[in-house]
Amino acid sequence: MADNNNNRQNKQNNGFRITSILYILLFIGFGYILFKDDGTELNGTATYTEFKEYMEKGYVSDLVIYSNMNTMDMYIKPDSARYVFGDRAIAQPLAKPMLAVGVGSLDNLQEFIDQAEENGAFTGKVEYRKRSHTFTDILISVFPFVLIIAFWILITRRMNGGAAGGGGVFSVGKSKARVYEKGQSDRVTFKDVAGQAEAKTEVEEIVEFLKNPKKYTDLGGKIPKGALLVGPPGTGKTLLAKAVAGEADVPFFSLSGSDFVEMFVGVGASRVRDLFRQAKEKSPCIIFIDEIDAVGRARGKNPAMGGNDERENTLNQLLTEMDGFGTNSGVIILAATNRVDILDKALLRAGRFDRQIHLDLPDLNERKAVFGVHLRNIKLSKDVDVDLLARQTPGFSGADIANVCNEAALIAARHNKKKVEKDDFLAAVDRIVGGLEKKTKVLTAEEKRTIALHEAGHATLSWFLEYANPLIKVTIVPRGRALGAAWYLPEERQITTKEQMLDEMCATLGGRAAEELFTGHISTGAMNDLERVTKQAYGMIAYAGMSDKLANLCYYSSTDEYAFQKPYSDQTAQLIDQEVKAMIAQQYERGKKILLEHEEGHHQLAQLLIEREVIMAEDVEKIFGKRPWASRSEEILEEESKDDNAPVVENKDKVEP
Questions:
Q1: Of 310, 321, 455, 640, catalytic
Q2: Buried b (16+ CB within 10 A) or exposed e, 297-320
Q3: Residue 47 CB neighbour total at 10 angstroms
Q4: What is the mean pLDDT of residues 260-288?
Q5: Average pLDDT over residues 198-202
Q6: Model confidence over 304-355: pLDDT tens digits?
Q7: Active-site annotation holds for 291
Q8: Does residue 567 have a cis peptide bond before it, meaning omega lies within 30 degrees of 0?
Q9: What Rg value do the Cα atoms of the chain yield, rounded?
């Protein structure tokens, strides 16, 4: 590693020296051009006729004749220089001004000089010399070409991005992959990846391939070409790929799918070729392509492109490099995406991406492990319970949990605390899920009452519906865009039944139902609730087949990315609309019926909410009694109530302004 760094440093130093020399040459050349005749000497050229004239007038002091070049230097008397050079001689009265003169015949020249001496017009001396090509003459004749070459080299290096190797016009076809060499001290290993036990087991085998390939090839097996990491955003796909490279201790090429895409034709395919060329030179190694869906979408599905789609050409080259006539022994390709349904089938076949590794959102135990990783460098108070934090964050990804830990540390520092306490983590979860608390937003008494009735409606229905998510906290404190929110602890289900979805829909409509029943009017505060309910109803009927008139039918297709028409007729669309309206209306009436049955308790809950702004599950229990439906969620709630009734946050129900 040190040798590679030294080599890179030497290349950069050499490039710096060459650039410096080129700058010096350019500086000298421009200086020579600008200042070669700056007036410090009186010289120039003259014709043979002018020479004879100056001789007859007695202006000439000496002559130096170069017999081998038929030229001579004519020196002018200082007191006569003003007649020859004019104002230049007056401004710069220097000794021995000179003019160069071309000579046709040396015999005629000698006769003219002899005659001038007889007439007394010339009394100086005459000297014959042979001129040789001096270094100055050679430099003057060659320097313009050197200057042009140096200027061209400098421009070329600049267009190529300089000595350090940037991305200029001439390197547009080069791979943009960042290379992480083996042996780095800050490498990521599997201990930095918490949870995802099944995924880690899969990729550990890839590490074993790279460390001990002979173990598998001796039995006739072949090393897998690639593995595709699939999962929602924030589940640690990129981190897991880095851990594979860190554990295997091999070179790691990292780039994004969009790095292949360029406006120039053929650039993407060129970059793919260059990437695999570099990888073969450093094999065994790993190539990691993040967000591969940017270049790996199914071919022929884009109606806006013609037959020469640059993205498709890039994909074709990638397919060829992964499993073509060439060999890529020792090169394993990892890729990550959260849109595997739109990838080209040729990319997913055996021999290219041999296996798909799914990374799901962490469950309760995995969230504990993730918190353990991100809490390593945080100074924690003794009252922080990692188990409680894991229960408070259902549905959070690894990136979300990292954000919670960081936000808690920032909140503690904002309050000048020495350690991060439990309240800081609770505030961090509220901040991330609900948004920033709006302490300056002023509500009128009527608005506050409407919001309290709305949130109390959610709380009441969720308390009496069997499959509704257990209520944890209700607040009418404005936070983010929401004027109020109800917080729940959803059960982590693998499948959801129709009855469970209907109960959740009914509880979501409780706010609008309470407004209509107890204020006599409806408001825009239920817009978020109605949006969620409408999407849920359409999903249940059009996708999940949960309708009596459209039973067991699914109109969703993951392969028709660019579908130009609906997969059902206009009559079916009208029937879907009718079923959605009927389902929502039925649950709305059901919610109003439950609210009327518990009208007194609802009003007590709303009044308590107006007075305290935030109420917990235990306050609801004091009004309505113990919740009639026992579940695992209830057990968790009881555990939390013993721990200062800490709020557990997820699936907030907002009142929009």
A1: 455
A2: bbbeeeeeeeeebbbbbbbbbbbe
A3: 11
A4: 81
A5: 81
A6: 554 457 788 888 888 888 876 665 567 888 899 988 888 888 888 888 888 8
A7: no
A8: no
A9: 43
H/E segment holding residue 205: helix 197-211
pLDDT surpassing 50 at residue 450: yes
Question: Given a cut of 90, is residue 582 above it in pLDDT?
Answer: yes
DSSP state of 420: B
Q: Give the dihedral sign, CA 128/129/130/134.
A: negative
Of 180, 178, 201, residue with least CA distance to 190 = 201
Average pLDDT over residues 42-62: 83
Most confident of 71-80, 137-146, 631-640: 71-80
Alpha carbon distances (Å) from 621 to 78, 266, 426, 490: 118, 68, 22, 18
- Which helix or strand (DSSP H or E) is residue 600 part of? helix 599-612
**Cα-based torsion angle of the residue sequence 207, 213, 219, 225 in order, rounded to the nearest 10 degrees:** 70
Angle separating helix axes 510-519 and 599-612, nearest 10 degrees:
100
Q: Encoding tokens for residue 365? A: 């135990």
Instruction: Return the closest-CA partner of residue 487 out of 399, 614, 402.
Output: 614
Judge whether residue 83 has pLDDT over 80.
Answer: no
* Res 476 pLDDT > 90: no
Please give the order of strands across the beta sheet that includes 614-616: 614-616, 471-475, 485-488, 653-654
Q: Which two tokens stand for residue 89?
A: 């001689």
The lowest-confidence range among 299-313, 346-360, 378-392 is 299-313
Identify which of 453, 463, 503, 495 has the alpha carbon closest to the alpha carbon of residue 605.
453
| DSSP output for 266-324 | THHHHHHHHHHHHHHHT-SEEEEEESGGGT-BPTT--TT--S--HHHHHHHHHHHHHSS
Q: Measuring CA to CA, how many Å separate 13 from each of 16, 17, 162?
A: 5, 6, 12
Would you state the torsion angle of the CA atoms of residues 573, 579, 584, 586, taken in this order, to the nearest 10 degrees? 170
**Residue 176 banded pLDDT, cuts 50, 70, 90:** low
* Strand-strand pairing, 355-358 and 126-129: unpaired
One DSSP character per residue, 466-510 reads: TTSPPEEEEE-S-BTTBS-EEEE-----SS--HHHHHHHHHHHTH
Sign of the C-alpha dihedral, residues 259, 260, 265, 271?
Answer: positive
183, 1 in Cβ contact below 8 A? yes
The DSSP symbol for 124 reads S
Within 13 Å and on the Cβ side, how many CA atoms surround 629?
A: 15
388-to-385, 393, 399, 493, 643 alpha-carbon distances in Å:
5, 9, 18, 19, 9
Average pLDDT over residues 624-643: 60
